[in-house]
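for ur thesis appendix - SpoIIE family protein phosphatase. copy paste whatever u need, i formatted it the way the template wanted (i think)
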Amino acid sequence: MAEPGVETRTRSSVITARAAASFDPVGRSVAAARAFVRDTLQGWGYSDIVDDAVVLTSELVTNAVIHAGTAADVLCLRTDQGVRVEVGDRYPEREVPIHGAHHALGHPDHENGRGLLLCAALASRWGVDYTPTHKQVWFQLDLPQRPVGTRSAGPALPAALLPVADEHVRVAVVQIDRTGAISAWNEDAAHVFGYASEQVVGKPLTDLAAWPHTPGTGTGIAEALQLSRWEGSYGIRGADGRVVPVYASHLRVRNTQGEPSTVCLLVRDDERAVLQTPQRAAVSDAGRESRTTDPFEVFIGSPAPDDLDGLLQRTVERARDMLDGDAAFLLLATDDETELEVRATTGLPSARQRFARVPVEAGTGRYGSARMPAVHEDLTAVPGAVPLLNSTGMRSVVTVPLKVEGRLTGSLGVAAEAAGRYSNEEALRLQFAADRIALAVESARLGELERLRRGSLSFLVEASDLLAGTLDRDQTLALMAQMTVPTLATWCAVYTIADQSSDPYLSYVLHEDEERIDGLKDLLSRIDPPDPVPTPGARVWTSPNDAARQAALLVSKRELGYGSSRPVSSGIGVTLATAAAVGGETVVLPLVARNRVIGMLTLGKPTDDHFRQEILELAEDLSRRAALALDNSRLYSERMAISQSLQRSLLPPGLPQIPGVEVEVIYRAAGEGNEVGGDFYDLFPIRDDAYGFAIGDVCGTGPEAAAVTGLARHALRLLAREGFGGPAVLERLNAAILDEGARSRFLTLLYGELWPQEDGSAVLKVVCAGHPLPLRLRQDGTVSPAAEPQPLLGVMDDLELYEQIVTLNPGDVLLCVTDGVTERREGTRMLGDDGLVDVLKTCTGLTAGAVAARVLRAVERFAAEPASDDMAILAMRVPEPHAI
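the 3d part is after this line
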């Protein structure tokens, strides 16, 4: 006796419509299946049972693709009583909980068995069917009985179950004139998007819309504004640059003068329940035929899908139902009519076949020609005659061409599992239907190509902007991968070549599922990289697929105990998942810059999936831009390495320890990458108990300034150690600078010699040649200049310089800075000498390091903008006796 609520599959109800789809064994398929069931039931007008159907489908598809690890086939059947949904997987030996005294369906907190528990709770009837290769769980939801005259309304729900929205729901109202420009913008629109009305009125809405996200897919915003009624999702770029996802309802209206415009209501996408309305129920075929004689609508139904994919999918489903077939497929011809590309299937693994290409003429097994109707009674008689149907179990097939003005535009076929199902009569019926839809399909295809071209252009412009915005190699590699995944491919790998003698190196790997990246990287690192062939265009690379299949086969054998003394289960899940991830088509595009191959861009698809030719052409355009950006980042990195190496050579490697004197130096070079030139400092021993110090500023930046910087620092050390005094050192340095001729630069320089004394003080001899004067901070807090100004170097031949003697007592500080400190600006304000004196007065009792840090902090806080000039700060302090 059957358990309550459980029954075997019956066909007693009349099936009035059906919809089917297959989903890959990946996590994102669960969401795709939910969307498929929701859209199907809403299209049928069954909004009352949508939520229960989506919940049950989600659980059953999760069991198939996540727990069983197989593809899931979802079939929706509309009957006169309600809806029947069937979910099948390829794992028939999987244990199914059974009602009974000793078996329970499962626990709500457990993943396994929860789908069946929900079926028992929500469905009117449900059951499980088995075949040698499939397991199928089905459930039926009956429509609620309504009294005559009752209008559809949502159920009364507890407050906790109502849709979540902000405390104040903002509904942006935007009016668009006939040219597409914004003519009205309400306060809610200003609040949601951040633009005031005067900022946007008169501008096209397309300037603010970020749509479509994937090139060539979806209706464009410009097209949507021309429709009499449209409702859907897209993005608006706000004033802060971020994209605000919105749900919108557009309605075309006209004023009393007959001027058309479009009124747009927009809410945040997570509040779409405020605007979203279910689709109208489909009109029965009988009623439709009585009102119209249009053969296209008779076959496709009304309303016809707006997008090409929807039109093609509706076509194959109607063709299959019309001839009572088990499967149907539609292929579109390439521009040169030499190949046919699979674009829609039903009853076949659509994800595996989508975008695969077959020749128009495939030898004797192609029924002679794809340009004529053809019937094949038994495919087993000619193995491989229809490559699309290989290993699908189909025996008989009828195909007809789609032609527009005598030109082949596609092929439509219906297949059955039984042999001898079709004759010339069915071929004529199918050809009649194909003639009705050929023009609509071609028009939709041309529209898709145009949108794809526009989207591709927009994509390449954005890619160029992003690649041009960085000169960092690692960031360039990351951008290359992120722009291709998932827009162009499921996964991406970038190989780089350092020079002509180096082998390609795997530099970056990205997969749309982050959990697959490590396994993919490990697989690619164990196989030889693709050959660096400079030939433009994408070429197929089979090594990842082959290696993944071999690894999956090996680990499966080990798991089963073949070829090993014991099973090894470690890593089998990762290996099999990686094999599925790279099981589709893989292509390699060379990265060529300045007539040299600098790397390869590798793009891949999951199991048995293929690339569209338009996507490959877009990827080729992207690879050219990415190659130039990658080479530019390499050149910039080399230049920066040289610049930074030279910069380090112009500054002392370290500071000597001076007995009885604290010394602190802070150096900040302005400009990205710390460009060579500008300020410099030095502190070095001259002889026992004598030390030299210098701080200077060369006019200008770049190589010429760097040359004077290097000349000054090394000449100072050499002349001081030869025994010359301060004035003699600077006079000889002045002559050396003038000898540089046109390359010379004038130089401001503070040079001094320091002798620590036994009584704890320090004696300094200082020469200030055009440099900001050194400041002396006494222990009582007074600040005064420690030298007098003298002529700068590199201008006059004859200089008469003199040195001044300064004694630093315990607790005194000598502060030396470059003009990057005193000339720090904020608008018309400047820190100046007086501002530096005020800062130094607050440093009484601080160490040399604390004094330098306080001065730097005061300079940085003086203005919000980054410093535009180099800065050097040299602080020397004689500590008090108890602090030594």
